Amino acid sequence: VADAPPGPDEALRALGGARTRVAVVLTAVMVGTYFGFILLVAYGKSLLAVELVPGLSLGIVLGAAVIVVAWMLTWTYVRWANGRYDPGLARPRSGRRR
Amino acid sequence: MSAAGEPNAAAIGFFLAFVATTLGITWWAARRTATADHFFAAGRSITAGQNGFALAGDYMSAASFLGIAGLVASSGFDGLIYSTGWLVGWPVVLFLIAEPLRNLGRYTFADVVAARLRATPVRIAAALSHDLWVGVIRGGNAPSREQLLVARVATVALGVVAVALGIAFKGQNVAFMVSLAFAIAASGNFPALVLAIFWPRCTTAGAVASMVLGTASTLILIWGSPTVQMDVFGRDGAWFPLKNPALVTIPLSFAAGMLVSRVWPEPAAVEAWHRLERRLHFGSDD
Prior knowledge:
By secondary structure, chain A is mainly alpha-helical. Chain A is 83% helix and 5% strand.
């Protein structure tokens, strides 16, 4: 490790920082969306009871929307992890083994 | 006119067919299970796609289909909290915990916590039959055949306990019952896991205190809840007001872990954290 170039360690550290930021932002969006919905369930019942079309209330649509948001955030993370994080992890390490 | 709770030939027939199919698949799989590694991790040959199907199957359970449908029918929007809340937990686990665990290369709760802290007290507190037998009683070298036997006996014992609990709690909503099981796991395991992964000063004693107090307090407060005292025992009141104690016991478990870690520091655990930190972030020590 002593003769390793200075680059890879900084690259890894930057990658770790980037992962933490991505994870925190995505978690904040998910938690914010969920508790926003929960607050509406608790305090906005009359709003959620508004029927968009007969038999379909706004509450059901927003509940489904929370689930769709969860899918989209998961997709975002998987794309980032496969496109940036994993290749980024592999690169400095293979560089060091040389 | 169909009456809820009345025996129904079609329903019982479907139930028996599903149980028979499940047992058939299990029997087929069990004949291919030769070692403990097969038993616990399917020979480490599960692909990401297969794992995804397993998680999806786990999620689309009786709790989702019967329990949540029933809760929405009987409680309206309040029932939706269950259907969204459980799903929302998955991405958060993915973002915050899954990647560090993958990098660490450990997948069971006790393995992760034991990787950083002293293993024996953690395994005793986590009380997994297999861990206890192999790691503690046999000092880490039990033959694979023996490990498998212990695991199978423990599985049967757990099944018996589950059936007994199912009879005791019959009439309770299944999604609510699952939420009680989650409350025990969330109080007994989650705080110790989070502290061990993210907090440098977490100690072995702290993790054990968090697990023991989290599990014990949850069981005691479920015992004192309206569900057990009033619905099961038919008493007039309950000495603990909440039906699900997690709101109290998860913070309690965190507090116990942090307090004990602060009062009795463990320098070796701090050193282990710095060694582990690189693995958690980057999946390697170098």
